[in-house]
Design a protein that fits this description.
alpha/beta, Purple Acid Phosphatase, chain A, domain 2, three-stranded mixed beta sheet, single chain, two-stranded parallel sheet, 36% helix
């Protein structure tokens, strides 16, 4: 997470890329996305959020798998990494990509750049 914390909260990305919305922990949907869109070695992907929070592979399942296979410390490290992911992306200096909207206190792209990643103790 330390490396991710150093990354900007606003990414500037050029096309071509494939933009994907929520996958909600649906592993098989992710596999299908990659089958249709192409292997990550050949296709650039931008995922907008909600990686593991619902469905049969939801956050509880994710935590349980971490506890069974590893330790709670691994789960905490994953959660910290998720919290450090970028908030937004601008594609081709034209399209703003976000998940679920922005705070009403954010009015400009510069406001997004000023957001500091915080760590929530799990």
């Amino acid at each position: 997470a330390a490396l991710l914390r150093e990354e900007p909260t606003l990414l500037n990305i050029d096309a071509p890329l494939t933009i994907c919305g929520d996958i909600h922990g649906q592993f098989y949907d992710l596999v299908k996305l990659i089958e249709v869109g192409g292997a990550p070695s050949h296709t650039r992907y931008l995922f907008l959020g909600d990686y593991v929070d619902r469905g049969y592979f939801g956050i509880e399942f994710f935590k349980q798998e971490c506890l069974v296979k590893y330790t709670e410390n691994i789960y905490d490290i994953c959660m910290e990494a998720f919290e450090c992911l970028p908030l937004t992306a601008v594609v081709n200096n034209q399209f703003l990509c976000v998940h679920g909207g922005l705070s009403p206190e954010i009015h400009t792209l510069n406001d997004i750049k000023q957001v500091i990643h915080i760590y929530i103790d799990h």
